[in-house]
Amino acid sequence: MLLSQIDERLVAIASLLEDEGIQREVERYGTGLVVFQSGEATQAVVPPFPVLRDTACVGRPETEPLRKMMGQPRRIAFVLVTWGAYAAGLYEGLQYVRHRQGTGHIHPHTKKGGSSQARYQRRTQGQRAEFLRRAGAHIDEEFGAEAVDHLFFGGNRVILKPLTDECQFVRRHMPVLSPRTLLVKKATLASLDGALGQAYSSVGFRR
Q: Is the pLDDT of residue 164 over 70?
């Protein structure tokens, strides 16, 4: 390969890496980036799981490391929480193992003013705190003895911090918690399947 051809490919790769969309997804996933350059086409893939080492190959695009990474057995836990509902599940790869789910009543905020509004807000805050205590205790009861390779949180992002304070299982697995917050409208058993699909999804770019 001529040096000028190598320079052109490096320019194409550098241009792709400067793309704001790619940078945003790389930050959101926190798993690294895989780039393929062939002819005039440059492709980038943000994988669903972390790239463990930096490698570079010249010549024929080498896809085996990416395929091998995707096929690696993984023990994955999901903790999905929205106000008033939670669902936690354990998977061996794509195979369901078991789950725990539950609900709790949380009174909605009122639009009334004055002391009534303040009273309702205090009640709502108390109900939310109690719901998270119960959810954390039940998740610990079901999964407290488990160790997983990856943990995914889904639902309302603002819930994660107070839930972590109440749930030892989540707190213990913070080092393997994905920076992604999975999109979940309501935490239910059915939403676990969608969360699994999101966890294994990648993002591709091409120029």
A: yes
